[in-house]
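Run log // design_07
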């Protein structure tokens, strides 16, 4: 099979975190989430000459984003108007990746979101160059339930097995590992793009995400996966015997969940004692515990 060529995409580079407008009043452009205009709408705040001369020639899709010259509280500042990112191709493209799904994910008749081969945001929140970095970051945030245009996968079968064990510990049904061949005649590599997460975050210079998590094995699949490239492996007795023969993987996942539940109860009790409630967020980790991220 011929190598998949590397594709380039020109995108803006934004600050990793939002900042208050008053701290950087002379910035050329900001991108601001606009929940009032839709769950995945953005306002772009910039002066008109900069838009006409610099932004519109590179990103014609911005005309569909609300342009405002208004004040706001928090937004991401544009750092570079054009940064080149690259898809995973050539000799560095993995031959196969693994994606884990369970029937608790789903909204269609199969019990899975789009049978596990299209992202939650399919048709609702397509990836666009101008907002690409923001969409990637939101996809990677732990427990962010936006309808993402991406699906997460891993090249490490151990990571996939850990995630199966975690779902098993939760009591979810219909757990499957999707073994995805990344080449084949049915792939449209201009649309169904494969991205190396660590490469993307390095290009975006998102140091907080890179510092806090490994992402060494994680990939993002954009748009969809050709059904012909997918082999489904149910998390049944045969697969458990292969990947968790002594049951220790599931036992560790249950113990981890128990510790998290104890910690959640501690924080909730403490907050009630202070007359307030603050939701407890699961910690995010890298390395072998990175399975908490590979959910897509």
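design_07 sequence
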């Amino acid at each position: 099979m011929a190598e998949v060529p590397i594709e380039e995409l020109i995108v803006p580079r934004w600050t990793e975190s939002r900042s208050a407008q008053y701290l950087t009043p002379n910035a050329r452009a900001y991108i601001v989430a606009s929940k009032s205009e839709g769950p995945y709408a953005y306002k772009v705040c910039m002066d008109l000459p900069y838009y006409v001369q610099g932004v519109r020639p590179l990103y014609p899709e911005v005309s569909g984003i609300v342009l405002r010259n208004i004040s706001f509280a928090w937004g991401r500042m544009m750092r570079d108007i054009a940064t080149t990112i690259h898809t995973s191709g050539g000799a560095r493209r993995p031959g196969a990746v693994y994606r884990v799904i369970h029937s608790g994910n789903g909204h269609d008749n199969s019990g899975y979101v789009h049978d596990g081969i299209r992202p939650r945001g399919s048709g609702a929140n397509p990836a666009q160059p101008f907002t690409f970095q923001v969409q990637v970051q939101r996809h990677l945030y732990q427990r962010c339930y936006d309808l993402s245009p991406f699906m997460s996968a891993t090249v490490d079968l151990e990571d996939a097995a850990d995630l199966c064990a975690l779902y098993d510990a939760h009591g979810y049904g219909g757990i499957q590992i999707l073994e995805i061949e990344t080449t084949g005649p049915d792939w449209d590599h201009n649309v169904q793009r494969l991205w190396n997460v660590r490469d993307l975050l390095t290009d975006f210079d998102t140091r907080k995400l890179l510092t806090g998590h490994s992402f060494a094995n994680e990939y993002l699949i954009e748009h969809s996966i050709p059904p012909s490239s997918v082999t489904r492996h149910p998390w049944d007795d045969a697969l458990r015997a292969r990947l968790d023969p002594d049951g220790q993987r599931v036992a560790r996942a249950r113990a981890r969940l128990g510790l998290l539940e104890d910690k959640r109860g501690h924080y909730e009790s403490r907050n009630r004692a202070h007359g307030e409630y603050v939701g407890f967020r699961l910690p995010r980790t890298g390395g072998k515990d990175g399975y908490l991220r590979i959910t897509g």
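The chain has two domains: 8-82, 86-244+284-292.
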